[in-house]
Amino acid sequence: MNIFRFFGDLSHLASIFILIHKITTTRSCRGISFKTQALYVTVFVTRYLDLFTSYVSLYNTVMKIFFIASSCYILYLMRVRYRPTNDPSIDTFRLEYLVGPCVVLALIFNYGYNPTELLWSFSIFLESVAILPQLFMLQRTGEAETITTHYLAALGAYRALYIPNWIYRYFSEGYVDPISVTAGLVQTGLYLDFFYVYFTKVLQGQKFELPA
Amino acid sequence: DPSSQSHDEL
To answer: Name one GO biological process term (chain A) (predicted).
Structure first.
């Protein structure tokens, strides 16, 4: 554990709390992609299956349980409690374009041909593109509530912080995980456009609006 | 081999 990874994980936790706060205080999940949230449940469940087989640390176990539970809770909020505020007609990204290639990539790039490793690898690839339905929705509507942009910024910061974490681990432990690093770089790259607008507009007190 | 470290990242 190093400071980059720790703050990355905190940022990830913060993003989830911001999202739950947004949905429950506005009593609406407007602007949030259900597809992206469903993909995160898939990511966490497939990756954290090792909860039952390998123990890393109490921190690790608690975080895994939290991520699975909170992502399921968000789906419940969107699908049941605040269902009328969820508008599927603007959440139109085709999931098969994401899931299909991730299955293929996992079959090619993995650390072992067994169910746990294949699902782990699949979850890494899927996480790297899981935000796309959300970003696509943002692009379509051209604007977002400020709280939603804070959620995305915290999520992007989590990914960005994992990069110095890997650099640090390479020098301190000689540890390199090429699958995580490659997928992580792609994932962080997807946030670059968003971050540009976030820094130049939202943090200057303006509304998040994309140029027409 | 990264898998031997049992994927300690979240």
So the answer is: protein transport
> What average pLDDT is seen over chain A?
96
Closest C-alpha to B5, from A108, A57, A12:
A57
Test B3 with A56 for CB contact under 8 angstroms.
no
Across the range A155-181, mean pLDDT stands at: 97
Contact between chains at A56 and B6 (C-beta distance less than 8 A): yes
Q: What is residue B4's predicted lDDT score, i.e. its pLDDT?
A: 52
State the pLDDT at residue B2. 55
Residue B5 has pLDDT above 60, yes or no: no
One-letter amino acid of A212: A
| Least CB–CB distance from A60: residue in B2, B3, B8 | B8
Cα–Cα distance measured from residue A152 to residue A155, given in angstroms and rounded to the nearest whole number: 5
Residue-wise pLDDT tens digits, A64-106? 999 999 999 999 999 999 999 999 999 999 999 999 999 999 9
Hey, where are the domains in chain A? 3-205
